[in-house]
Design a protein that fits this description.
Layout (H helix, E strand, L loop, with lengths): L2 H4 L3 H5 L31 E2 L4 E5 L2 E5 L2 E4 L4 E4 L4 E4 L5 E8 L2 E8 L2 E9 L5 E9 L2 E3 L4 E7 L4 E6 L4 E6 L5 E3 L4 E4 L3 E11 L5 H13 L3 E11 L7 E10 L9 H4 L5
Antiparallel strand pairs: 1-2, 2-3, 3-6, 4-5, 6-11, 7-8, 8-9, 9-10, 10-17, 11-16, 12-13, 13-14, 14-17, 15-16, 18-19
């Protein structure tokens, strides 16, 4: 990240068309984890953990990054694992945020056609389509196989880099392979489309089934935001409570880092 990007101040962000007018009347967070969405062209990735996401013109690009380990640093290598194409959209911008999330709106002129709630730690990357359209997903990899269950609106997709992904549609549609690296819906979809990494390399069948089962159990609980409350009334420790805002039913499936788990009360 160049110095000009780091030094960008609130005023220059407010002048950028990538921030909704409704948000320009209040202070814009500096050094926010999602600031790449509103700096310069807004085409650099944001890290939601475990994914990296880029919101581009008419597409949402999702990456499960590959670690590049060096003796002096560890970096994340970007690759376009999935691009979710949003038809008819000609502009996008940030329309809301809180401490744990940011929401990007995709517009056809002034009509909001899709929203993308990016929430830290979410096991899925989600696009919510507000009007019916044909779904198209593409990947930089080759698709080897699809296990599609149209009655459930889901498909398990096997890629040639060894990764396995789950795609879930709120509309119960069939997902079909189109060419080497594309998926298409059998009919127009509306509502949520969610993609999640099942495994990044060849895994035992039982482990893969367990991972798919856990993801499907949480598919209807879509996190759209979150807040943190801090209780420091005790001198010996502080209690951090995360409250997720959820659309749909059930509890969302969220990731944590290993060193967080040791101090969590579940």
């Amino acid at each position: 990240m160049g110095s000009n990007r780091v030094a960008c101040n609130s005023q220059s962000v407010k002048e950028n068309c990538l921030l909704d007018d409704s948000l320009k009347s209040k202070p814009v967070p500096t050094s926010a984890w999602w600031q790449n969405l509103v700096l310069q062209a807004g085409d650099q990735p944001v890290v939601t953990s475990p994914y990296m996401v880029r919101c581009l013109a008419g597409t949402v690009s999702v990456c499960a990054p590959t670690p590049l380990v060096h003796e002096k640093y560890v970096a994340s290598v970007w690759h376009d694992d999935w691009k979710l194409h949003i038809a008819d959209s000609n502009k996008h911008r940030v329309i809301g945020y809180d401490p744990l999330s940011v929401t990007v709106g995709y517009f056809a002129d002034k009509k909001l056609v899709a929203t993308v709630p990016l929430v830290r730690g979410s096991a899925f990357t989600t696009v919510v389509f507000n009007s019916p359209q044909m779904l198209r997903l593409s990947t930089t990899h080759a698709i080897l196989r699809i296990d599609s269950q149209p009655e459930d609106g889901m498909a398990v997709v096997y890629l040639n880099n060894g990764a396995v992904w789950l795609v879930c549609c709120e509309s119960r549609v069939s997902l079909q392979q189109s060419g080497i690296s594309e998926l298409e819906s059998s009919k127009p979809i509306c509502g949520t489309v969610r993609v999640a990494l099942v495994s990044s390399s060849c895994s035992a069948v039982d482990d893969e089934r367990a991972a798919v089962g856990s993801l499907l159990f949480a598919r209807d609980a879509v996190p759209i935001g979150g807040h943190i409350e801090i209780d420091s009334s005790c001198e010996e420790k502080a209690l951090f409570t995360i409250s997720w805002r959820v659309k749909g039913s059930g509890s969302p499936l969220m990731y944590t880092l290993p060193h967080h788990q040791m101090s969590m009360e579940l």
